[in-house]
């Protein structure tokens, strides 16, 4: 059955190639016949030069628009992370995030954040409260008490399960940077971990 499917696929592929080849030949002959029958008609105002000058502007605008969207998303994730590292673990609405971050967001960007970006972001946990989505930072590691022994236990557990190393950034994204660096330094000094 697989050989038959493969043969059918090859046949369709050959048919498509011959179709494309005949289409290209036809266009070539049409082009040569139309160029021999040229008339002195006025040039269209919708010429190639106008289109080519408009296209880069449209592309640049849409590119910068999507850049600003992702910049806003990055600011929101950073704000939620700062709140989490500061000890605030309550989920908040998008409007509250925007207000606290002092961001000015267009309605289309706000809709994108609420319906797509924040819902699918791996660094954000979504909690539905009374039908309203609320967002909170999702730490990469489970180190709620932020103690040295908790991190050491996590590292030992990951080692035993062959789950790989933990990055310094993940530890810093879970507990405050100063505390994380101090804990890591102490574990290295005690010879309990390797950086």
UniProtKB/TrEMBL annotation:
Positions of region (Disordered): 20-51
Entry-linked InterPro entries: TFIIE-bsu (IPR016656), TFIIE_bsu_DNA-bd (IPR003166), WH-like_DNA-bd_sf (IPR036388), WH_DNA-bd_sf (IPR036390)
Domain TFIIE beta per the UniProt entry, residue ranges: 71-142
Segments forming a coiled coil: none
Pfam families to which the protein is assigned, alphabetical: TFIIE_beta
Example of a GO cellular component annotation carried by this entry: transcription factor TFIIE complex
Molecular function GO terms recorded: TFIIH-class transcription factor complex binding
BP-aspect Gene Ontology terms: transcription initiation at RNA polymerase II promoter
Compositionally biased region (Low complexity): 32-44
Domain of life: Eukaryota
Designated name of the protein: TFIIE beta domain-containing protein
Organism annotation: Rotaria socialis
